[in-house]
Specification:
Largest sheet: 5 strands, antiparallel
Number of helices: 11
Oligomer: single chain
Distance between the termini: 183 Å
Shape: elongated
Radius of gyration: 40 Å
Structural class: alpha+beta
Helix content: 55-70%
Number of strands: 8
Order of helices and strands: HHHHHHHHEEEEHEEHEEH
């Protein structure tokens, strides 16, 4: 009775077959995914890839089975063509999702094997920067192809594409001007990935602001300023404008402290004190450079430059402040007369000379 009743309603019969197929394949996909993860447990690369792509695979396999059932269904069923088209769109979206997850899995795997939370992370930062920029570019290409494939399933879109090809010259110019910012940043991202003027966690000075490269996206770079502000800079800016990179080759830096003192200051004593202060802070001073030189003189005093070295910019800043504070205290305590001062000579004022008579009177002769 049920089979005869279903034969009278082929649409219902096909719908039941489609639902059963979808759920059976969904269960099979999950079982296969679980077995694949167990097999790939000893292999970290394969395990991480499977963990990232299993969700789109759990959706893609049942959709492919559902599309096969819809293609084999009688064409006289109402709405079968529209249903097949919708399933095709979902399949393309699932494949795009699968591609994005696979790219992200590769990125996370590279990050895992090249951590930057170590002392010598120059090579790791170089690899992570290249990976991040290339992953953004590849993700953009995957999404672009996915959207293009979905649009090409519509006849109107295919006709629009044909008309664009017929007028490729004008359309190319218009699209080129319209997409100049996007394409410029895309090309700049590839240039940064290859030449690497900046890397993740680099210390840079951009537009007079000191900070670290916190994030590199497909369109902009996030610079974390020292006071926790974020400076958003387009990728193309780093290609077209000069900026300072303090960790391009190494993190080691030289720092300086200027002191203005009197001519009477004992230079050798200041030099010995600076050397002693550097040795007191091995956590800041890397032992390479510690020197004192007279770099300027004028009518009021001399300028001393204390040059020190540190393993990175943060330690260099702290070391400069430490040296400045302690050297000032040392001079104030031991040589207070050597602090900057203004000299003046005081002389006793002489009494004024008596006025000179410009019209003297002739002397009178005494009477005879």
């Amino acid at each position: 009775m049920v089979s005869e009743w279903l034969e009278q309603f082929p649409e219902l019969q096909w719908l039941i077959i489609a639902i059963v197929t979808f759920f059976v394949l969904a269960i099979i996909a999950r079982i296969l995914g679980h077995l694949a993860l167990r097999v790939a447990t000893p292999f970290s690369f394969a395990r991480d890839i499977l963990q990232r792509i299993r969700d789109p695979l759990h959706l893609l396999i049942p959709l492919i089975g559902l599309q096969t059932v819809s293609r084999s269904a009688p064409q006289d069923i109402a709405g079968i063509n529209a249903f097949s088209h919708i399933i095709l769109l979902f399949i393309i979206a699932s494949v795009t999702w699968l591609g994005l997850r696979a790219v992200d899995a590769i990125q996370q795997l590279i990050y895992k094997h090249n951590p930057i939370n170590v002392s010598d992370n120059l090579q790791a930062r170089r690899i992570q920067t290249q990976t991040k920029v290339l992953v953004h570019t590849l993700s953009f290409v995957v999404i672009l192809f996915g959207l293009s494939a979905m649009l090409m399933t519509f006849p109107i879109a295919r006709q629009f594409g044909t008309s664009l090809l017929a007028s490729a010259g004008v359309a190319g110019l218009v699209l080129g001007f319209a997409a100049k910012p996007v394409l410029g940043n895309l090309i700049a991202g590839l240039q940064i990935a290859i030449t690497q003027p900046i890397r993740l966690d680099d210390v840079v000075i951009v537009s007079g602001e000191w900070g670290r490269i916190e994030e590199i996206t497909g369109a902009y770079v996030v610079v974390r300023i020292w006071d926790d502000r974020r400076l958003i800079v387009p990728l193309q800016w780093f290609i077209e404008n000069p900026f300072q990179n303090w960790t391009r080759k190494t993190t080691e830096l030289l720092g300086f402290v200027y002191l203005w003192l009197d001519y009477s200051v004992p230079i050798e004593a200041i030099r010995q004190e600076a050397d002693r202060l550097c040795k007191e802070v091995p956590q800041l001073w890397d032992g390479r450079v510690c020197g004192v030189q007279v770099t300027e003189t004028d009518a009021n005093g001399v300028q001393l430059r204390v040059l020190v070295s540190a393993s990175d910019s943060s330690k260099c800043w702290d070391l400069r402040c430490y040296m400045r504070e302690n050297l000032i205290n040392y001079v104030m305590k031991n040589y207070p007369d050597s602090l900057p001062q203004t000299r003046a000579t005081l002389r006793e004022k002489e009494p004024p000379a008596p006025p000179v008579d410009m019209h003297p009177q002739p002397e009178r002769q005494p009477p005879v």
